[in-house]
Structure prediction request, 678 residues.
Amino acid sequence: MSWADAFRLAARSVLRRPGRAALTVVAVALAAALFTAMLTMAATAQGRVLNQLAKGGPLAGIQVAAAAPDPSQAGVDNPTRGAAKPIDQAAVDRIARIPGVDVVLPIVTAESLVAWPGHTATGGNVVGPNNSGSVVFDQLVGVNLSRLSDFPVTLSAGRFPSPGSVTQVDVTPVLLARYGITGTRTRSVVGSQIILGAPRGFRSADGTPVFRSRWTKATIVGVVTQQAGSGGVLASLSLVRADQRWTAAGDLSVDPDAAGSPYAGLFVIARGLDAVPSVRAAIEAVGYSTSAPENLIATVERYVHVVEIVLTGIGVIALAIASLGITNALLAAVRERRREIGILKAVGARDRDVLRSFLIEAGVMGALGGVIGTVLGLALARLVAAIVDGYLTSQGLAGVHVSTPYQLAVATVVGATVLAVAAGALPARRAARLPAREAVEL
Amino acid sequence: MVGTALAHRYEGPSGAVPVLVGATFAVPRDGYAALVGPSGAGKTTLLSLIGGLERVQTGTLEVGGRDVASLVGDELAAYRRTTVGFIFQNFGLLEALTASENVELAAVLAGERSAVRRRRAAELLDAVGMTPRAAHRPGALSGGERQRVAIARALVNSPRLILADEPTGNLDADTSEEVMQLLESLRRDRGCTLMVVTHDRALAARAAQRLVLDRGRITSAPTPGTGATGERAAGP
Prediction:
């Protein structure tokens, strides 16, 4: 008998007792759902925690500061920095050539005044252009917006500015807090217009130091928590560099900080977590202080791995119990179908034909339960994630994202099928050994 | 088909129970034999030995020159599949399959291609007058219809030997007559050997050869009279 014929025969036998088959499949499905949901939630939680540790950037991300390293802080995740040290293009090129470095992303900052028409800032004692509300001093942080996913930046409302745009910005909750906007209210600022002023120092005719700003309007398109640089406004590189150039063209005797480092910092992505320590050491050898949550991530990963092992164990036990249900159902089927098995043998079925038919029955129930359970489990994980997401965003925090773990889904279905076939082995063997005489005995 | 000194016993709770004690018989190729005897005489056991449902314990049994006692495992299954066609008193149809699928079953087990076995099943169902009921499951068929399907199934692999265990035991007189006529006609057309176990004297009288089994022995194999089929025994 071919596999296809054995499959057809097994399917007919399963369908002949739909109630029992359904209950058996439901048991497997519930176990598979539990297994999938637990591991999906564990993976989501792991991703969320690690993302939190990496501040939304890649786990192998290293922040390079425009400062010399402190030799006593080697290997520390967040070391204290040494003296300020500008990062020039030559330093960027040297760092890019370090083995294990995947990419080097520049971060530029520019001093800026922020005026928000209709809003009053705490401590804002300067009036903006055209009486547009009080002005606060802050910094623009410029990054390559087309590679935002590589930076330690997390979006909590709206969207990121379009790459290359000089009229769209994101703001941080820290800046908004200066205007008294906190919690869920931060979402309401998306779409508002702010005015950014790039200051330039010069001396008046009588030699008095004076600052004059070049004002540009920008639309807030999102709210982010960002660790790329110390500033309340995230914008494109071109916008920030233009402001940087404008400020640097002023009288440096009035504003000495205007001729600072061309790069406020760098964000270096190593080729995997394993490469982070060596890359950090090499960058520090070039002469710059680095920080990366490598030790914390390694510790968290170990704990999360333990949790995964425990949850996997629970899921496997649940599946094993459900598989015993398959053993029970098939043993009952063998008892009921002694005559039928005898008839099969009387018309020429070999022991292995009968064995194959019962194993397929077990496998079909396991696979069906596995598929249904995996879909249920993923749905359950998404439901839980949606509830958690709702809570987090209501608190003004970044939400969680559940990705579909295809490998886990496939592993669950395959695992449920294999366990079911193993559980069906005993009844299948018993059925295969029944004599053909059963056909005439009962 | 030659059985010599066949002995068979079953292990019961109070020890071994002998069922056959030296049964000896012979049925010629293309013969038609009725196996008769009182209940418990060992008729079904003898039929099971001949049909390969049970292994021979003592004695020798040859079917078509083949030593059935030496067959084991897959060889015995192949013997049941290709040499023997079994017809049961209780029809022996699988409830989960349609009439057509039941007929195909033996060909499925023989590894026949789908198209071949479908064609063969259709031909046999047509031969037993069951084409209109081919898609019905056994539960929707009458006793006579079920036995017709069982006959078709027994013939699907063109066996040389047909064994029928009380084929009319669950049928009324008219249906019994129809079924027996069908069986005898198919045997004639296909030129195979037919052995029928029966309690029915009239039915036994139709056979060319009558084997009387009593307390585990074939006590007589009298010269058959002229049966309804008009055949005579070719002799053992």
User: Anything to note?
Assistant: Residues 3-54+298-441 of chain A form one domain.
